[in-house]
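For practice. Any example?
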Amino acid sequence: MQRSPSSYGLRAHLMIVLLLAAMAGCTGVTPNESAHSQTHWRKLGPGGGGSTFYPVFSAGNPDFFTVRCDMTGTYITTDGGASYHQANFPNGSSTYAYDPRNDETLYLGTSALFRSDDSGRSWTQLFPHPSAVTDTVYQGDHASCRLVTPDTLHNADPGRITKIRVDDVDASTLYFAKGNSIFVTHNAGSSWQRIPLGEEPIFIYSNQNLLNDTLLIFSETSVFLLNKRTQEFRRADLPTSMVPAYSFTGGQKGGSKELVFYALHNPTAIVPGEAFGETQIWISNDGQNWQRTSDDISNNRQNNAPPSYSLIAAAEDDAAHAYVVTDRYMEADEEGTMRHWYGSLKTGDAGETWKWVWKGGGGSGRYGVKDGKGVENLTDSWVEDAFGGEYIRLLEAGVYPGDGNIAVVTDWYRTMKTTDGGMTWHEVYSIKQPDNTYVSRGMDVTTAYGVHFDPFDKNHIAISYTDIGYHHSFDGGKTWQRSVEGVPGDWVNTCYWVVFDPDIEGKLWSGWSNLHDFPRGKMTRSPRWKSRGRGGVCVSTDGGRSWSPVVEGMGSDSPTTSLVMDPRSEPGKRTLYAAVYNKGVFKSVDDGNTWTLKNTGIDANTTAFELTLAPNGDLYLTVVPTPVHAEGKTGTAFHSGAVYKSVDGAETWKKLRVNDGPLFPNAIEVDPENPGRVYLACWAGVTLSDLVGGNVVRASGEENKLLPMPGGIFLSEDGGESWNSIFDSSQYVYDVSVDPRNPGRLYCNTFNQSAWRSDDYGKSWTKLPGYDFHWGHRVMPDVHDPDFVYITTYGSSVLHGKPGRP
């Protein structure tokens, strides 16, 4: 990160990041807290940008639906996807259900069960009861949240709530699945009963008109028929030839008195969603007797190539209509070459026939290679222009219960909707403007590392993103456009950092990598991660509209996560420093045209993550933990993270002693008033498997121990010679920031669902009200307005707001 006086008083001219609003925690929040969060923060970004899952409609209004993402956010709309508000829960949500009698009543499952009666603007925790929760523990590389409670029902089945079913007759009766059990309440959550099944429930269905008092519960091998009055159940085996089954769906065929259920089965042993299978679609009229589909399209008989399906979804009250999602469907072209397609097929006659309604690809099926076609019947915002023609995996589908022609599908970058049975689709994540810029609808689903401001144009703002590269705005963040022209194709996944030249208008440098999510430990578990890394530094002379790589001496295999420019160097001959994650530190004294490795004094671990330049020219470096990979093999040995300091322009480095054990340092900030006052943000304890991988730990027979790494913030008042903890060492602090206009004022952001402010140099801290996103990156003062800050997040773009006081 840039930490030079010329770029934001040690940081301000470069990062400006924004935050996310919402509601709910591991132990729930009050309606007042949730309403408060909605008034403080405005989200910035182009919209979309990451994977979304599990679209669920209300029963009575197709404009009400909810979508989750893989970065912990829940997105709720009441206007058909024109706009969204966001609910935040540690670990993210795992399942939703609307009350069939009230479209504003929504249930949400995580490790706990929540209910909202105002379309997700406030929440009440139903299970376990908040009074029974004695502690909330965050642990591991992603600060996973765990509730500590003596509640024996909650502890009986580990894991998260996976399915929820609201009774269609009695509003006070509710079912949810957790572990291998079903839980039921008949008094709106005041008390619960656990019914162990011995198998994990996948789909829960009831229909008072056609099934009387029977609740159907499907698992991968069985269907359980539960009597809702007596709580007795019987188990019926699924046909051997469709076991294991997954992704059940179904319901009533329109106004008829017939039911239809669908399920998927892979004859080969794979984990659905993680590998391509050879999938069969199975259909039943009662949930107990099943048969395979026989049509040519869904079985791809014309190409003799069984398709791979990941999910099937039906309209519960119009269930003759169903959509199946394919992540691999092979077709031969005119030359006989098998081409790779992805998308969705639909049936309107209960599985008798199927047709394509979303079809993209037709290329090699490789990510990042534009040798296919986009989706012809889609009206999109920016993603189709950016990635269309590549392999983009469609992920999930959700169908409005009352009309099978209304559905939502999701993929790696976006959420799309149809209202005509898939004949046409339109985006519901971002709005395309007449000038080909974009405005988010409130569904931003990707990681922002920084917000960077042009010193010559206060309205020109850039965001460095994971997965979608570099975006910038020329109207102060109102609209956005992607700009990667000239960036090598195998770099464009992630732009980690940007530095503007404060003296030359239109000139800026950027750091790129094909490997995203640094410094998370999952990225370096493979012994081949260094050789797979691509990236480097690019320069632009037209304000970021186009780029040119500048990697002489560094190479194009240099994932660059941090850039620093020395403002004392001569314009046109700038001194630049780059943290290259797989190699160490590089220095340029000629504007980035040539680079030299500067690792003297740095140990064997060269996972250089962040560089910080103090006002007096001192240079600091954080290096993060990584597996040793001795002789190119996996193992349980790992390098600790480290902090280094250079007082001679990176010619030599001195390792600083922060603590006596392993360390996971993220970022450093230096007080502009006093270069000897240095703040260090650290990650709290991660497990051994976080670093080296669970399979490696299990194979070794070693304990998957929690590594004793102190988190929080450390302060040095002597330039790094000695350190003291000034913030809760159990918290996962990503970064700490100094407000140069307010002496003593600091900010930090965490993966503990909180951001903090101090006005006394870190002696005391107060939470920023209204912010509760689980995975936070940075809080940065607004360089143009002292009352506002920006917050970047790991998975929900950027927020801008006035933090105020609680």
About this structure: The chain has three domains: 51-135+149-237, 256-443, 444-801.
